Amino acid sequence: MSIRVKPITRDEHLAFVAARPSASHTQVPSWGKVKPDWRAESLGWFDAVGRLVGAGLVLLRPLPGPRLPGLRRYLAYLPEGPLVDWYEPGLERLLEPMLAHLRRRGAFAVRMGPPVAVRRWSAEAVKTGIADPAAGRLSDVRATSYDPRAGRIAGDLRRMGWRQTEAGGEGGFAAGQPRYVFQVPFAGRSLDDIHSGLNQQWRRNIKKAEKAGVKVVRGDLEDLPAFHELYGETAERDQFIPRPLSYFQRMWSALTAEHPDRMRLYLAYHDGEVLAAATMLTVGDHVWYSYGASTSRRREVQPSSAVQWRMMTDAHELGAAVYDLRGITDTLEESSHLLGLLRFKVGTGGEAVEYLGEWEYPLNRLLYKAFGLYLSRR
């Protein structure tokens, strides 16, 4: 059955997303407005009778250097997408029309992140791996479950000429979207079940915050500067490059305009001072803990734990099937400063999930190679 790929309207895209249980927050139309350096386009996959059977947000990044009229070339990027039936046999009929359309748009290469889970490790399995000196990476630990369909999809992509990108960064954190994430399953569980699944330290910290009088409130656009002040302190403490306040203001305006609950801000107060804050994103029944921030002052009252539990409580009330704490390291070495973050997330009693990762297809090999050299010298 032939498939056509062509641009669709924002409303068509949103309707397709709304008809699915969930989709990545990077695959909704509003995400394009969060990335002003990229040109965003909504694509639709249509079958032979004209039914919309897939959708994707593609971000087009122009090549650096002088822009000659009629010769603009782009890197096309579909983060955690496209939203198609990845498990249907014959991926060629879904991906080849996409490549043909993007080639006509001037793309010299296409990058995508199939939302396909490969392996899962329970919290107990991850803890066992951390304690095992022979396990240097998560992949050295026996997975709790494995989906063989993911291996078939990876094989099909390689056969079609797609290349899996290197993980890059420290501890397996990719330059694009994370390959390894930590998620807490909510489907079919009561809030008491979820609370019981937290480890003793998590439960103790939540109780400490309650006894200390920490109050967590929903914030709004005008509260983003308070969040960002803490975020800047967190960046300095944890040694990462922070995003500017304007990024979060743009993110808030774009996402909440699309849906009032697409993005939420939570702030933890103690004695009138904001000690911790975090953002939460929602698409369908999937909820993400997105960005967190805290001060080093009065950490004994556990404001970050209070924020997390409030977000988990609200996510459950929203009907979430998954509470996603996003990226984790796949490095289990004690020397890694990212191991503490992994231990923190393991305390939720959820599971580590490995996705298929990001893949690239060079449409113009000369430009693709030149772009790779440019990135390597930055």
Automatic annotation (TrEMBL):
One of its GO terms (biological process) is regulation of cell shape. The keyword Membrane does not apply. Keywords: Acyltransferase, Cell shape, Cell wall biogenesis/degradation, Peptidoglycan synthesis, Transferase. SUPFAM superfamilies: Acyl-CoA N-acyltransferases (Nat). The keyword Cell wall biogenesis/degradation applies. InterPro entries: Acyl_CoA_acyltransferase, FEMABX, PG_Glycine_Bridge_Synth. One of its GO terms (molecular function) is aminoacyltransferase activity. Transmembrane segments: none annotated. Coiled coil: none annotated. PANTHER family: LIPID II:GLYCINE GLYCYLTRANSFERASE (PTHR36174:SF1). Belongs to the FemABX family. This is Lipid II:glycine glycyltransferase (Peptidoglycan interpeptide bridge formation enzyme). It comes from Streptomyces violarus.
